[in-house]
Amino acid sequence: MGNCLTSEAKQPLKGKSGSHLNPSHGGKALALPSQNKQKNSRSEVNNVITMLAATKDVEILRQKSSHGNVIVFTYNELRVATKNFRGDQILGQGGFGTVYKGTIDEGIRPGIQSTQVAVKVLNPEGIQGDREWLAEVNYLGQFSHPNLVKLIGYCCEAEHRLLVYEFMACGSLEKHLFRRVSLMTWSIRMKIALGASKGLAFLHGVERPIIYRDFKTSNILLDADYNAKLSDFGLAKEGPIGDQTHVSTRVMGTYGYAAPEYVMTGHLTARSDVYGFGVVLLEMLIGRQAMDKSRPSREHNLVEWARPLLIHNRKLLKILDPRVEGQYPIKSAQKLANLAYQCLSQNPKGRPTMSQVVEILESIQDLPGDEFLLGGSSVTLYEASKESSKSEEKFNGRSKSEPRKDYAALDSPSPDSGSSNAHAKSASESLLLID
Length: 435
Prior knowledge:
It is a single chain. The protein is α+β, with helices and mostly antiparallel strands and 435 residues long. The chain has two domains: 31-166, Phosphorylase Kinase, domain 1 (2-Layer Sandwich); 173-370 and 405-429, Transferase(Phosphotransferase) domain 1 (Transferase(Phosphotransferase), domain 1). It has 13 helices and 16 strands. The chain has helices spanning 33-65, 75-81, 130-142, 173-178, 186-205, 260-265, 270-286, 302-306, 313-319, 330-343, 354-365, 381-395, 419-429; strands spanning 11-12, 71-72, 90-94, 97-104, 115-122, 151-157, 160-166, 210-211, 220-222, 228-230, 237-238, 247-248, 252-253, 267-268, 372-374, 377-379. A hairpin with a 2-residue loop joins β6 and β7 (160-166). The longest helix has 33 residues, at 33-65. 41% of the residues are buried. May be involved in plant defense signaling. Its main location: membrane. One of its GO terms (molecular function) is protein serine/threonine kinase activity.
């Protein structure tokens, strides 16, 4: 069974705004013993304050839940639902804790229709604390949308923190793109991209915009019909209001998906999410992960390597995911690549809004099945790609039996790849890698 509630470890991504390095001492952080004692003392005080604040928030949450649709479960009820948290019920594990498959029914709570669920059990020593747990309950309990995973209930009993979600039969997008042999067709990828974009657009469009802050393939869950739903709201944050242009916050997220301006300054806007969406769109187009150290060094960072190629049609044909060759119309592929290119703009103002992204994706889906015209005859995109390769081989004086150039050789300067790529590189080098 698929991992229906995937989550990765989340730690601060250290950019300029969050750096602890002292430039005058060779980049090493220095601290005197007395400073360490003071720091530890402050840390203990902050922990106590956080605990008190979290306890107060939990009580407020209990009061809200008694009037809402979110069910407050007891620990024993969820223990029964997961067969005593049995090992064969585990759907996934991570720094946050463990996710179990379970069933809630009349035997657990009278009046409840039998339903499969995913129960997320937070590890008290894990990286997701009360604040992140409360953020998930607050946002998912407050909002309802077809493209947001449904929060059925929660448990806050003594040291126990659990969340109960609807069960997502097909697991995460990450699993289907990178961890399985089975093929995700072009049409399914388009359906998922549109669904995920609608979920993000909804969050940005509420009265006080919500910035998701951790948009990635492992946080996009799929039901039995491959409908996409956003999950894991632990890092979500309320966006700017009124005359505010951004909110300033500690840099958090996942390496490879965080917008460069957010990493460098800590300034967070809805356009930061658009960048993350662009990364996921690129992964779906090309079939590669945002960060892949197994590739040649110049291809480790997918955005830095692939973005300049998206606006060159011939090069685009060569880097599209070979697992879906022949399945996509040329115009659709080009428009999707152009959308990804815009979402990944180094300048946040150059990115579309998520509502605009939704409109563009809908228009792409409405395109008729087209063909690529080559030399006066109609051929499919796959055939055009082969013809393009033959032409390049002839131009380069190579025979068909000779190996094709590695993808990295396709990387050539584009109007946007000069200082922009340098900026992206400096940003990525300052990040703390999160797996």
